[in-house]
Amino acid sequence: MPGIKNILKTSVLALLLFASGIANAQQSLTLYNMPVLAQSAYTNPAQIPQCRLYIGIPMLSSVYFNFGNSGFRPSDLLQPGTDSINMNVNNMIGKLHKNNYLSQSLQIDILSMGIKIAENYFSFNITEKENIGFSYQKNFITWAWQGNGAFLGQDENFNFGLFAMHYREYGIGWAHPLTDKLTVGAKLKYLYGMEDVWAQHGNIVFNTATNDYGYTTSDNVRVNTSGIDSNSFNNISVGNYLFGKHNGGMAIDLGAQYKLNDKITLSASVLDLGYIKWLTSISNYTSNGQFNFDGIDISQFVSGGDSALTKLGDSVKNTFDIKTTHSSYTTMLPAQVYLGANYSLSENQSLGGVVYSQIANRSLHMAAALSYTRKFNNWLSVTGNYAFINRDFLNLGLGLAVTGPVQWYILTDNVIGLFVPQSVRTVNIRTGISLCFGRKADKKATKASFDASDPTPSAPPKDGK
Amino acid sequence: MLLPAIAFSFSACIKQYEKPLATTLYSPLVAVPLINSNLTVKDLLVKDNKNGTITVDSNNFLTLIYKGTLLSLRADSVIKFPTQSYSYASPSPTVAEVTAFNALTIGSSYTLPTFSDTVLFNTNGTADLDTVIFKTITNLSLTITSQFPQNATIKVTIPSAKKNGIPLTQTFKLNYTGTLPITLNTNIDVSGYTFNMTEGGTTHNKFNIDFSITLTKAFINPISTTDNASFTFAFTNPLFEKIFGYIQQPLLSPHFDTVPITIFNNVVPGGGKFTIVNPSVTFKLINSYGVPIDAQFNTLEGYNPGYPPYVITITDPKLNPWHLPYPTVSQVGQSVLDSATISNATTANTLGMAINHTPKNFVYSVNAQANPAGRPIAPATNFALDSSRFTVNFRLNLPFWGTASNIMLMDTVPFSFQANDINAIQSLQFKINATNGFPIDMGFQLYFTDSISPTQKYNIVDSLISPYQEILPSAMVDTTIGKVTSAVNTISQYFLDKTRINKIANTKHILLKGTFVTYNSGKTNVKIFSTYFIGLKIGVMAQLQTHI
Hints:
The complex is a heterodimer. Chain A is of the alpha+beta class. In chain A, about 15% of the residues lie in helices and about 50% in strands. Chain A contains ten helices and 22 strands. In chain A, about 45% of the residues are buried. Chain B is mainly beta. Helices cover about 10% and strands about 50% of the residues of chain B. Chain B contains eight helices and 38 strands. In chain B, strands 6, 7, 8, 10, 11, 13, 14, 16 and 25 form a nine-stranded antiparallel beta sheet that branches. Chain B has a five-stranded antiparallel beta sheet with strand order 3-4-26-19-23. In chain B, strands 17, 20, 21, 22 and 24 form a five-stranded antiparallel beta sheet that branches. Chains A and B meet through strand 4 and helix 5 of A and helix 1, strand 2, helix 2 and strand 37 of B.
């Protein structure tokens, strides 16, 4: 089985490469390797499900939650002792990388459906999405913990990043097998923005001078918000809130699957290539200045004046004087890329590998997983995977799909996080229930469900054989 | 078997976190800039030197000046007239005058002969007045009482009181209404009248009043030889606007006062040597008082509490005594200026010696006497306006040119640590980055003191700079002119460990001590210019330790 060895070797190398300091945000690695689910098209629009007609139960067909912290596990900071929990900040700092990323996502399908017409698969979904990402640097945590005296003469650059976005996605997808080997898909999405916070710049530099401990601080901060400031909630009705805002955007998902041979299928997708232009209830908070403080000017005191502290206060105020404007702005969605490979071990078993990357907040976050999928019978499929997420190898993914006219599934990229969240960097779950009609329960279909190389298992071969 | 084992394991893990959160030791190293100042002479000396003025000449050379007033007397505070009154009665009419009046028909008038009286104006011995102009508010009241059972018209004239050449005359009517006596209370406006009190150059403080009584027969009642009229004049707090005459020889002082020399406030007396090359004192006269006055210094000395005075002996003949010039009659209303300056040359070096003792006060008393030669010989005369004043100002000039050695300044500042703050501090490291642009070696010490008893309020428990060292060496100096050529920068650090911090935990006051020696151990005269400065940056780094 040289093919398996090569895949494993390549995958391990990839995992080691990503361990060098990159992390993940809102991945769905387990879902990517569960083509039996219609929702797998959310990770690759070229994915065509088994059902001829798929209807998601409103609000229940897909509920996704993800929390990740690439910096440290809770247990790195909080360590149980005999009768209390101790905070081991030094240990936590030791786990941090230069740049760290904290993320949280929540996605709920309001409506979703899909239908096969001839060789085409059309889908539609309305999904409420909320994403938060916050990047912080190890040197800030270290600086705050060890004190500025430990960093004399050094420019400490606290480059914070923040985005928090709530929007609704209206998506229309289409997938089509171009050849026996290649299937492509795309989803066009209209985006309705509801709230947003985006730190366009978050640079704060702090230096403590060696000779006199004087402070030099400069900041270049701009935070844009929509629907957040106090005026946003004046005289707003439910209807206006849900449908009346003028924050519109467009995005597209693109995907492809390529059957290399009978055993190996390669796949790739690019998701959320798009933007939202924020126009409603905008506030832009900007601070840009430099502040030097070398101590109190005692001449103010010895000469009988009392204005030194006042001047200091004014200086600080002027430096960090936050100017507020109300100009529209545009945010890009955090684009995601999946690269996958699947090796069919048998009709009921397959091995998969997927590499994920996300570009968010001007930084790249990556994850990867190796998976094993087994179909136990015509209605039960299980996927297990081992993943590197948030710079952490302690991620065991698990997916369970009960497939029939009613399809229920639950999956996670890290099952450990569901039970001992303090010991992981990623907590992740997706579950849902939907209706699946027109699914073929024959052997061929069973095989196809584990063989991504056959995107249309219920359809006859294009060459008529 | 596996699933229960996994579940049990997960459960055990979760239970581990169902414990209270323990406090954690937080021990940051915090560096804080405390002071960043460029201190000039003005900054350093203006504190507590509110009465001192620093002047800068065109070469930026500095002189510290203290000002005081030796004498300042206003004429109306020296010359005061008492409240006074005068009473007169008219002669009774003769038999012939009575017969003539009683024979008149109703409606006819008869004038009795005019009579005069002399007023002796009381100056309380302060002056022999030739002429006086009273202030507007001065009130001359008059009460007239008539015993004539007829209507009377009375004219009062002061011939020597004139305004625009016209004597002061006023006429009053007293109408008979069937009741005697007939009384009239009135005021005579004397403002603007010049009272000549010499009776033609023969005397002082006197003037005449003429009375004329005209009776008008309104009734058939006869008058008699016992009828008359009486007059009472009164000056209440008479104030003058201008006087001429002889203002006697009042001793206008002694005037004893003190000028604080606040630059020496924090200098410990007897602790060092201080020389100023050319100190001086300038006395400046402003006199609008038309009286010759001699002023003589009874006392002029530097003084430190608890020490003998440093007497300054004035050898300048101009000031022994100082014949204060004064305006002549033709200069009424003007001020005459004069000044005198004493220096080491005119004080047998006692001025410099007094300054070198860093006195905290200058003490002086001055005797001043008016008309030391007696009455001026006519046509000369004294004069004064009510606003006339003679003022002698004092100005101590301390040019910043000289030497200082072992000068010690001390001050105390209330200070206490917050208990939580001090407990959290494990160590302190002070860093002083100083640039000295003065030609002075400076040493500072900061003592932490607690209070043992009311008599031992400043018990020293530790000092910041240990062992003591000079932290601001003098700038480089061109010794030929005593001027700084380049500043000197030094960085020094002082460390307090936990043991020493615990010692100072009960600090109640900080005792600041500074020692100063001018360049070359105080052996070279140096000058201080306004361009000199001390660049002082002080920061502290604290190792903190607290539980959070």
